[in-house]
Amino acid sequence: MELKPGMSALVTGGGSGIGKALCLAFAQKGLFVTIVDFSEQNGRETASLVQNENKKFHGDPKVPSAIFIKCDVTNAGSLSAAFRKHVDTYGGLDICINCAGIAIKTLVYDDKSDGISTWRHAVNVNLVAVVDGTRIASQIMRSGKKPGVIINIGSAAGLYPMNFDPIYSGTKAGVVMFTRSLAPLKRQGVRVNALCPEFVQTNMAEQLNHRIIDATGGYLKMEDIVNGTFELIKDESKAGACLWITKRRGMEYWPTPEEQRKYMINPPKSKRMLTQNNFPIIQTPEFYEKIVVHTLSHNFRNATRLDRVRLRLPVEPHSALVKIIYAGVNASDVNFSSGRYFSGTAKETAARLPFDAGFEAVGIVASVGDSVDHIKVGTPVALMTFGTYSEFAQVPAKHLLPVPRPDPEVVAMLTSGLTASIALEKAGQMTSGQVVLVTAAAGGTGQFAVQLAKLAGNKIVATCGGESKATLLSTLGVDRVINYRNEKIKDVLKKEFPRVHGRLVVIGMISQYQGEHGWKPQNYTGLCEKILAKSQTVHSLCYGDRSSGEWVAPGVAPGCQMVSEEWG
């Protein structure tokens, strides 16, 4: 998740220590912050600091850029009310930090009280309130259908024993295992992670014996805690992760992959669940067949022929030999066979002949070079490289993407999925809470665009031609399906979505690939003047040679953007 001005965060225990530091760090990114704390003095002081920091982002905001809510986090009703106040003020919740925590001075086995004001209270603050805060925050995020991140502040004491406060250590261990068990929430758009630092110079830590602090290398910098938190927020792959931070070793994820393997249970084997151990050793033949372009032509059949060639062995040191299982048939094959994917003159392009055809594939590693140690023989992999219309392909090992199974669905992800992802996130600058129109939505790239935009928390309008396609789109979560065989797209958009502003993304020119000469660039007379008059910009991205560029009307501040993306 990228932190942007206008997003909102709620921080329990935000009046002091780590919580306060995170509130100020969020303010420096322009986030609206709710500070939840039992200390009114500390909480209001933090809120004031956040508001001052936020002035450079929100000069005259319609809502306060920070609010303080006095709350006993062990009171479920009060905690729930604090979350409701945040949502009522800011309209949603992007980030929740469960940071409230306390230590106790009396060892639990020496405590002769009923524990209500000592160890039981610590359990309620350190663990029960974290569970409650996570529960409430995740419900808000899921109901808003927007991605969210929850960070539970644990402790290194939750990873290994802390003899001088077993209750603190035990509750933080509970936070760690509770958080790690919530990894599946990522499927619903909510990522929950734990941060487990050693000693930080806070009021609570300063009450400890300094010899203990010194033995661990001294206090961590608050900057380390902020950086670790931001890493867990920004890294979309982290869900149910535990980031351990120490003065001695820096940042590490706990447990290590080696430790994880000790307790992981192998899933039941089935025909659909293949691992590299399920595949027999692939025999490398002396000869193999591949499709090769011999003549530059838009007619792919005329441009190519099936060649039988000798397999080159041994494999180059940094490469791997892949047995191709499925190759993707791409509409741009005709552009490739006609030489449009190469820069230079026609003569220079012709000099490249013959060259191998095919763009993407999945297969199994049959052999590796001597310098390759991260990919093993028998590993299912995906690859995006020229020359995949072949029984075997030798490619640099660094370009291989390990996958669970060599399924044909993976091939669709490589081009159609990647196209939709980059078009929406990079060219279209899609965020959450927007309205996204996808035309030809039941097609290859369209299906991915619909699902990605929906997962990002947007309202989806999609067009298609036919009842079966409309039904498919409805099952994918489209909010408004326009079947142009029954309704006029223009009439629907004018009536239901009038006078909108935004970004236009054009993906490919597949409908123009047909014909004798294939796709030809068109001359859009007056386009520059139209862009200039509306203060628009045009961004372009060519997938063929992985290059991109931007054209901005001179002397005009970019306002609404028109994004044009033409991919092979």
From TrEMBL:
Pfam families: ADH_N, adh_short, ADH_zinc_N
Alphabetized GO MF terms: oxidoreductase activity, acting on the CH-OH group of donors, NAD or NADP as acceptor; zinc ion binding
GO cellular component, one term: cytoplasm
Domain annotation Enoyl reductase (ER): ranges: 304-563
Keyword annotations from UniProtKB, A to Z: Oxidoreductase
InterPro entries recorded: ADH-like_C, ADH-like_N, ER, Quin_OxRdtase/zeta-crystal_CS, Sc_DH/Rdtase_CS, SDR_fam
SMART domains noted in UniProt: PKS_ER
PANTHER family: 15-HYDROXYPROSTAGLANDIN DEHYDROGENASE [NAD(+)]
Family the UniProt entry places it in: Belongs to the short-chain dehydrogenases/reductases (SDR) family.
Protein name: Enoyl reductase (ER) domain-containing protein
Origin species: Zizania palustris
